[in-house]
Amino acid sequence: MRTLLAVSAVLFAIVCYTNRIYLSMFFTQKHIISISPNAIVVAAVDAGAKRTVTIKKRIPLNKSMLRETLLDIKKSFNGSFDVILGDVFAFVFAVAIPTGTKDEREFVRIKAAEEVPQEITPMTGWDFKEFLKHVDQNEKVVQCVVVENDFYSLFSDAVRMSGISIDAMEPMLCSLARAFEEKPEPRLVLYQEERVIAFVTYRGLVLSNVSFDTTPDPHVIAQLIGFVKKKFDIVPKHVFLAGSFPLSDEMTKALSSYIVERGDLDPFMEMAKKKDGKNDKDTASLNIMPAAMRISGDPKLQQHIVGIAEPSLETGVMSHYERITDVRSGSYPQGKLFTILIFASSFLIILANAMIWYQRLQEERIKEIHPPAVSTGVSETTTIIPSGIATSVTPTSL
Question: Mind telling me which residue stretches traverse the membrane in this protein (predicted)?
C-alpha cells in the first residue's frame, strides 16, 4: 500500500510539473504589459479574490527598440503576458447589425472602414464580437476593434523576434469598460491616463469614445452623447469620473443634470478579471492578436498552425485565425479538459490510497491497544441464584 501511495504521489508531481503553466495562474502573479505612446509598463496582479497591482517596470516607448524591450521583459519575468493597448493604438467602437444579415463580417468590415481613419487591409488586425441584443430585437450590437496598421505590423514582428509569449491582447477601453459590465444602466466615463478619455459604455460594451489632451470639452461630450443616442437609442444618465483632471465651470454645469460619481479605475485590475471564470471565454473572442503572438514561446502552437493558409483578400486577415480559435496559452479546449481530468484523477487516486492506508493504520493501532482474547478451552456459564443475583460460575473438570 505504501508503495502504491508513493507511486501515485510521483505521478501527481509529474502532472503538476508538466502542467505548471496552467497551475501557475491559480497560485502566482499574472504579468500584464500596458503599451501607451510614452511608455511600456509591466504590472503584476496577484491571483485570488483580493487582487493587488504592483508596477514592476516602466520603460520609455522606443518603437525602434521594441524587440529589445520585449526581450528584456521576457528575461526579467517568467511565464506569459497579457497586453493592454493604449487608445492611440486601437480604435474601439460599436456596430449595429440588422437581423438577417447574411455576411456579418463583411457588413462590419464596411462599417469599420467608415469609422477608422485607415484602410482595412488583409494585414489589419481587427475583429468583433456580439455584446447585446438591441431593444427592438431587429438588430444586435457588436464590439469592434481595429488595431492601428503600423503599430500592428511593428508589434507583431517584435513579438515574433523576441519570442515572448502573449496570452491575450485588448485595447485599454475594453479593459476599463469591464468594470461596468454588471451595471444595468449606460454610463459616460471620463478616465485620465496620459490623456483624458471619454467613452459611453453599456454592460461592458464601448459604444463610442473621444479623447482630450488636457480637460474635457463639454461641447464635444454633448456631441458624443448625441451620437450614441442617434445611433443606438441609448442615453446615459450616469457619469463616472476616474482621475484628478480639472473640470471647467462650463463642464461642471453640463454635468449637473447627471448622476455623478468619482472612483478609481485600473486597467490592469480589469484585464486580470478577463481570465476568471465566465470571463475566460471572452478573452479570445476579440481575436486581434497577430499570428506571431500565437506561435511565439509555445512549440505546441507552432505545430498546430503549420499548414494554415494565409488570409485571403475576400475574407480579411482574421479568416485564417478562425481555424485556430482559442489556441492561446491555456485555452486548448481538448488539451485543457484532458489536463484537468488527469489532474483530478491523480489527486483522487492519492486521496483514496491515503484514506485506505490511514484506515489500516488505525486498525493496527486498535489491535495493539485491545489485543484479541485468547481462548482457554473452558467455557463460562452464568447461573441465576434464587436471590436474583447473577453470578459467574466456572465448572471444574471431573
Answer: 337-358
